[in-house]
Amino acid sequence: MPFNPDAATLSPSLRRAKPGAGEDEVDITPMIDITFLLLIFFLVTSTPDQESSVRLPEALHGEAVSQLESTVFTIGEASGPLAPIYAADGKIDEFLLPEDAASRDAAIQKAVEAGLVDNKPNVIVKADKSVAYRHVAAVVTSISRVEGVNLHLAVLDTD
After folding, report:
1. Which residues lie within the region annotated Disordered (predicted)?
2. Is this model's pTM higher than 0.90 or not?
3. Residue 44, pLDDT above cutoff 70
């Protein structure tokens, strides 16, 4: 390195620092890679929430109905004399209908009428295959009191 007389007379605070001195940097690229790998691993290995689904009976005949044009009711497994009924596709607690028969009947009819206003003429009833038919019949009876709906019972397609 050549001698620079001006640099010898400068105070240490005014001298130029050597390139790379005092510049400590951490390369976080490997940490980001590991984070994404862990995210992908957990997304691939996780199982969807089994509590919100019902086990449907298998179908022998029939055609599919679009859920986008349908009002959907889900009947869960009965834990007592009444089966829980949800005004949604799945067992979602915020859509649980009341246990009182009159209130439940009114809530079902109100949901079906709201579906008709939203241009949803189809009504799909999803019931767990272990649900007694009397629970399904009660929902079907409530739905049938509303004019102009097409009622469909959901089944599992075996194909």
Report:
1. 1-22
2. no
3. yes
